[in-house]
Records
---
Amino acid sequence: MKRVFFYILVVTQLFACASVDPVAKKEGAAIGSVDTQRVLAVKNWQLLGRLSIRSEKESWIAILNWQHDESLDNLVLSTSVGGVIAKLKYSSSAVFLSDAKGVEREISDQELQGLLGYAPPLSHLKFWARGVGNPQLALQLKEVSKADSRVFEQDGWLVTLSKFRQEGELRLPKKVFIQKDGVKIKLVVDKWLV
């Protein structure tokens, strides 16, 4: 049961959903303002990929199916052979978890933080997964040696985006690495549906 809650925490970190302002603030996600504005203007999207999390206490890997619209994120975490580990529904006001047996309950941010031992960046990850910073906060760009990578620090988290590919009019990352205080989150996107 603890592992299910850990999966939930990780997923909610990556998929906090709130209404997205289509225009980034000048101090916010200025990693190529044209790309940022295009990415933030897309209100409905889906990604299929793999998620891994490593902390001092645990590490695990799951298959991820994330469907996002303006009001709700639907996330399904599965094993490599297709068994559902957990399902999450997340809106700006609540996170609901369904376990492998289909039992759904609301999970608070404090409960998730208590299970993981760190404060998850819930409000940022929906942006970082798409290759932009949270437009509500300043970010610090880092110098990178690879042309197809972007690295920045935001709210104390180091975010590395790489292997960008064109999806229609958008350039979206295939790999997202996030780390802070011994917590390492890796998202590999196998398919974007935008």
---
Amino acid sequence: MRVFLADDHPVVLAGIKALLAADPEIDVVGEARDGQTALRTAIRLRPDVLVLDLSMPGLSGMDVTRQLLAECPGCKVLVLTVHEDRAYVRKLLEFGAVGYVLKRSASEDLLRAVHAVATGGIYLDPAIAGQAIDSAGSGQHDDGQGREADLSEREVDVLRLTALGHSNKAIAALLRVGVKSVETYKSRAMDKLGFHSRVELVGYALGHGWLAEG
């Protein structure tokens, strides 16, 4: 898999690169030390995974995520940060990021996270995964569970792929249906569960095992 790295601390960047380069399945295709360079180069290289720091000069990791995924929706953004605030997790999930790893856990979890997101999964650091689920609104999850049986198989497929970060167009191609049909399935299913955002959906999907890989 092709991985691009972005972090403004040279020592951290070198450590991440060494860790990932030791895996024969990973090809580190580039690196950047500021947000604007990260965005510009990632758009050009279109890596499978962008490992991205949140706090960078020029353009924040939050803005890089939003702009990159608008331009290259197929890229998987894996955030590597010191920030443990659930507000960051919520916003990044809304923007379409599919991974969140704390730097203090990188030596144990980063490789696992890169493989997980590259193969279509979502990876949230265990230290903040519970916060992400809780922040999605536990009361709505309770209501949603009772209504899950009302979802059709196709609605579940669409919601799961949405939670994984796929665009409506990508979901339509995967399921071999029209984009309008995907929009209808998604809207109907979100209404049934009482959800209004992707954060709620991701928390629900995590809690119900929809995102478990292999």
---
Amino acid sequence: MMKSLSLTPTTAAVLAALATVAVVSADSKFPVVKPDVRYTPFSRLDTTTQTIAEEKLGYDELTWNNHGLASIEKRRWTSLTSNERDGADLLGFSQERWDCFINHFVDYAWDELAEVGNTICHTHECHRDKTYIQQHYEQLGWTQAHWEGTTTDVPYTEARWWGQLTGPEQEAANGLCFFETNWDRVDMNPNPSFFPHPMPSFRYTPWHELDSVTHHVAESKLGYTHHTWDHLRTSLVERNTFFNLEPEEREGAMDLGFYMHTWDCFMNHYSAYYWSSFHEDLKVAIETLGWTEDMWAHDSETVPASETTKWAALTPDERAAATRLCFFEESWDDLPVGEFYDYDAGRSAAGAGDAGQVPQDINLDIFEHTGYAGKAPESVGLPAYTVLGRSGSCRTLAQSGVAALVLSVGLLLWV
């Protein structure tokens, strides 16, 4: 969950309209009624709804299935065009529902947040809630300096999953129309594999088999060369999380077909995450591979034995852990993509068996207490957690004897 720092000036009209965000029942945890349509996978929407989302709001399947990815979600209601507002209205949105559940007030100036509050009603009596949007953000660690980008720090809650927030922090997030699904940015894309997210098979196609358009995007926007494309984890761009990419790099990644979940898992393997960001199944995975918090620290020169162990020598538990980090045998062993590409079939042979049952040499039972264990193909994506990349010093996983690298990632801005 990241805030846009593209803020608009205060306007009396907007504040008057939003001085009372909504009238809701006292037992509701949100200030407005949740728009269930926005949390329905694109493939399950009816044709009319899909058309409205695409033609009036600019969504496609990828951006609809990932909360906060579409550029329109970075804009408040009054910044939408009349055509966009018409489309949002057809999907059941009002200014209050859009600004809370879609924009989360991130397109507001800090001072404006202190003017926006809620009205709570008990049967026939209503009263003004004294908690304003700014107070919710303050409960989550935000200050004016954070909001306006005058500090290089970010609130610590930005590195927390929903399950790591305290009760008061979750309540504050509810007041901003966040809940577990959109806070953790659950992946709604179809997933035909036993990996936590759909495998981006196009990334495992050799350079000389790519078309000219893909070459141009990979070169001009992401800085790939023939060598760095064909040798995984040799490109500097793959050392960053999706939201830590430069805007042009992020645009290029999306042009190729990546999105936050597939990039962070299959390209970065969560190596640019803070230790405190590992939670539930990710924490099980990283610890099963032998990592400790001290090892993960940016100044540590110690790495676990798994870092220099070939896939074939890993235990079933370690293979399961690596699978949760979106490694498969060929990527773990750092094989050039040309060595596992099926030229006759015209597709990558990476992650053999991904369309069938989980291989017997991978023991996903290590995740039995996290909700990830033993998931059949096509059922992994929705329950899997995903968290944004973080600023600061982070360690890069380095298999097959490659030395572990320390990265300093710049302040992450959702722009």
